[in-house]
Amino acid sequence: MSKNWTDRDVPDQTGRVAVVTGANTGLGFDTAKALADHGASVVLAVRDVEKGKQAASRFGPGADVSVVELDLASLASVRDVSAQLHDTLPKIDLLINNAGVMYPPRQTTRDGFELQFGTNHLGHFALTGRLLDLLLPVAGSRVVTVASTAHRIRAAIHFDDLQWERSYDRVAAYGQAKLANLMFAYELQRRLAPHGTTASIAAHPGVARTELMRNAPAVLRGLFSVVAPLFTQSSAQGALPTLRAATDPAALGGQYYGPDGLGGSRGRPAVVTSSSQSYDVALQRRLWAVSEELTGVGFPV
Description:
Number of strands: 8
Mean pLDDT: 93
Number of helices: 9
Radius of gyration: 18 Å
Helix content: 25-40%
Strand content: 5-15%
Order of helices and strands: EHEHEHEHEHEHHHEEH
Structural class: alpha/beta
């Protein structure tokens, strides 16, 4: 594959089934559309079904696309959509854990988890665990989890206060959630490796121009609007690391894809490295055990 990898390098996806969370807008939409444009059957797993249907109407003629309701801030919704997909899909080739929230005021999910940790990490942890049996029999199947450069910003797994009940810092809480995404992806790959069929790969979009910044503090939004042209890239470009992780035949389980330029903020998708603490196996396993306990979801690996 070319070093200057673009969506034109996506191989033919005919016959493959992809489930993409948060696919009605931004990175998720661009990821899902590129997969459909290359022949995949794509399921848009979205919180707002009407917005999902509007997004589906923007796909090319003949695209095989469907919409299901998924609220990652509700373990009941995760359970329900998993049951629905088991009833309707014979298999899953690609599970793209893309949806997320960034920098909201402190809120909790329906299950009482801090919103960013509960949605970005625990929701996807539970979804993956419930759908993994549809991936494991499929040679070449992949779980791609979308992380962020924010996993380096004031980020740690606060096992003594995972839900930020004592005090809340929206930036640090987002950093924790994105660090958890990476730790989950790496530990999942370690558990999948003996099966030899399914790979877990992580990706990040750099600094892409999406709706995620809407909850950022006013000073950050103002700064972003001023300097955005210098270090950001479009949503379509931001989706390329995810697409490469999902479709490049040379991609390997346990790798992390992101932009190759300007400190990882923009550029062509390439294999990159994450923070040293993200590779801490003991922390990964501890987080996994806590996530299983909190969600009540075990993995068939």
